[in-house]
Amino acid sequence: MPSLARHPRLTADNYLIAEDGADSRHEYIDGELYAMTGVSDPHGLIVGNISTRCCAQFCVASLANPSPTT
Predict the structure, then answer these.
(1) Which of 24, 28, 51, 68 is the Cys-Cys partner for 15 at CB 3.0 to 4.6 Å?
(2) In sequence order, which residues have a C-beta less than 8 Å from that of residue 28 and are 6 or more positions away?
(3) With 0-12 CB in 10 A as exposed, 13-18 as middle and 19+ as buried, what is 57?
(4) Band of pLDDT at residue 67, cut at 50, 70 and 90
(5) Are 27 and 48 part of one and the same domain?
(6) pTM for this structure?
(7) 20/32 same-domain check
(8) Range of the domain at 57
(9) Residue at 2 is within a domain
(10) Looking at the structure, do residues 29 and 48 belong to the same domain, yes or no?
């Protein structure tokens, strides 16, 4: 049975050096790199909408129930 070639694990410092200026982004997990998918325009729009709604709800709740100051 053929064995898979082992490659050395990256250190966090080497990961940061390699990731700086790279064309694609990667996740660093336990010395291994995993490619991340790109963000699409619809994804950015959805995230922005959710963020706006959450912030609006939080602001309304904070105004309705202000925390006491000591």
Answers:
(1) 28
(2) 10, 12, 15, 19
(3) exposed
(4) low
(5) no
(6) 0.44
(7) yes
(8) 39-70
(9) no
(10) no
Q: Give the pLDDT confidence score for residue 56 in this predicted structure.
A: 85
Q: Per the structure, how many domains does the chain have?
A: 2
Task: Report d(CA 39, CA 55) in Å as an integer.
Answer: 22
Domain co-membership, 27 together with 45:
no
Please give the full DSSP string across the chain, using - where no structure is assigned: -PPPPP-PPPPHHHHHHHHTT-SS-EEEETTEEEE-PPPPHHHHHHHHHHHHHHHHHHHHHHHHSPPPP-
List the one residue out of 31, 25, 26, 27 whose CA is nearest residue 13.
Answer: 31
Residues 47 and 60 in one domain: yes
Q: Are 53 and 30 in a shared domain?
A: no
